Amino acid sequence: MLNKVKVAILISGRGSNMQKLIEACENPDFPAEIIVVGSNNLNALGLEYAKSKSIKTFVLDHKNFSNYQNSREEFDKALHQEITKHNVEIICLAGFMRLLSKWFVDKWHNKIINIHPSLLPDFKGANAVEDALKAGAKISGCTTHFVSLEMDAGPIIMQSQVLIDKNDDKDILSQKILAQEHEIYPLTLKKVCTKILEN
Ligand code: GRF
User: Does the residue 16 lie in any domain?
Assistant: First the structure.
């Protein structure tokens, strides 16, 4: 049987990118397997889908860490503990709405992948689609990248362009970009895992 890289996916919400990654991994020739899906939000819709595919899930509510002096790092240490239970090699962030601490990013250097709804380095941050529209951009898209300490700034893996029509509003453009995200995230995971298996 093909050797596969063990992957964790972290989500906070709907999890449509997670779903595409899970679907891609169902192909016996795909070089990755999703071992566990984690969320900081008990009500993340994507958790149900992962469970329906018999993938292990866990929830770590960040609010339970608010009393710690260094709450972000304490949360990340608990996250690391959960993930390492499963011999995970790569982490995919798929709408995971948490900034990761230096401690965590250092531990998982070049092993965390994120997807962002703009052509980075343009329009970093949480309002990328609105910002592209406000700026009057004619082209936007999505980017997969390795996670570094600076938000939305790590080495780029893949990008896909989307043309912005003058009638596009936030919902329309988000949908157009999301359709491209669903294409490039599985391709990105395949590229990264193929390289890992070659080494
Ligand atoms: C996507 O737009 C992704 O680019 C951003 O968060 C959104 C997640 O959507 N990081 P989903 O939960 O994968 O549907």
Answer: yes
Residue type, 20: K
Report the pLDDT averaged over residues 110-134: 98
Q: What is the mean pLDDT of residues 131-150?
A: 98
Domain of 99: which CATH number? 3.40.50.170
Q: Report CA torsion sign: 112, 162, 151, 149.
A: positive
Q: For residue 170, tell me if it sits in a domain.
A: no
Strands (DSSP E) contained in the chain are 5-11, 32-39, 56-59, 90-93, 112-116, 139-146, 156-163
pLDDT at 188 over 90: yes
Q: Could you report the per-residue pLDDT of 173-183, keeping only the tens digit for each?
A: 999 999 999 99
* Domains: count for the chain: 1
Distance 122 CA to ligand 1 centre (A): 17
195/199 Cα distance (integer angstroms) = 7
Q: How far is the CA of 94 from the centre of ligand 1 (A)?
A: 6
Whether residue 42 lies inside any domain: the answer is yes
Give the pTM: 0.96
